[in-house]
Description:
Dihydrofolate Reductase, subunit A, 8-stranded mixed beta sheet
Amino acid sequence: MAKIVYSMLTSLDGYIAGPEGEIALPVPEAELHQHFNDLMRQASVVLAGRRMYEMMRFWDSPDRETGDTEVERDFARAWRETPKIVFSTTLREVEPNARLVDGDAETTVRSLKAETDGLVILGGADLAASLSRAGLVDEFRLYMHPVVLGGGKPYFQSGQSLTLRPLGTESLSQGVTLLRYAPAS
């Protein structure tokens, strides 16, 4: 059975993007980037909503093969090699190694969870909120940057109520602290 992990960079005040939806958090440097490369290589599948998928398509570009650093080139390869399921009612097509689902995310993810082994990475706050309400998220990983954005897209959707139990913390480079939680029930 798969383990579904909602994993995102976030500011100290809980935002994953700035007020206009822009990436407002510091760009991961080599050591932190490698952490995410390793995580991507562990993933059996990536689940993403439309906005997250469109943002991450940056890594599908052939230019990433000749990116500035080896750690970036490695992430691009890991991203392209990892199967993806994209949930969207507006997209009409996705890149190779991705499957588009425009129907019921909960049913699709329940089946995936039962039929897949290993780590499933979940990205995107709206999709994560929907799946956590359905009891399908096994772990929440907040990568807290030592910055305050003052507003924007929150890691946890407004009005979402969860009781969590701590699984641990880890200090990473760039002053980032990884906070890991599981649903209490």
